[in-house]
Amino acid sequence: MPSDEPSPLEYARRFYYDAMVFDRRAIRYLIDLLGADRLLVGSDFPAMPREEPGARTLREMGLPEADWAEISHRNAFRWLGRPVPEADAAPARARVDAPA
């Protein structure tokens, strides 16, 4: 019986997800399943040790620049209901990649 209801995947794409899982395979799966536009760089600090430098696993994956920009900062603006700055990709990448 056909349904006009959204699929479970469509429901899942309504949420944002923490990409700090420290496992490249899991991150790749989340990107492939949900899209880079649904992931955020998160932290469990101070509950658990964080990566040094922050988001190391994500940065070492060699993601396309557009995916990195979505995950590293653009999605946070969207999640907060704020406009995404137009010229933010290059400066943000430089800030995140700066040595700790």
How many domains comprise the coordinates?
1
DSSP summary: helix tally: 5
- Sum up the overall morphology in one term: globular
| Oligomeric state as shown | single chain
Protein name: Amidohydrolase family protein
Pfam families: Amidohydro_2
InterPro entries: Amidohydro-rel, Metal_Hydrolase
Domain Amidohydrolase-related: 14-81
Description:
The protein is mostly helical and 100 residues long. It has one domain (8-97). Helix content is 44%, strand content 4%. The chain has 5 helices and 2 strands; from the N terminus they run αβαβααα. It has helices at 8-12, 24-34, 56-59, 65-79, 89-97, and strands at residues 17-18, 39-40. Strands 1-2 form a two-stranded parallel ribbon. Strand 1 (17-18), helix 2 and strand 2 form a beta-alpha-beta unit. The longest helix is centred in the C-terminal third of the chain and has 15 residues, at 65-79. The protein is globular. The termini are far apart. The model is unreliable at 89-100 (pLDDT under 50).
Draw up the topology in text.
Layout: H1 8-12, E1 17-18, H2 24-34, E2 39-40, H3 56-59, H4 65-79, H5 89-97
Parallel strand pairs: 1-2
Helix pairs in contact: 4-5
Which descriptors apply to this entry?
2 strands, single chain, Amidohydro-rel, 44% helix, 100 residues, two-stranded parallel sheet, disordered C terminus, 4% strand, mainly alpha
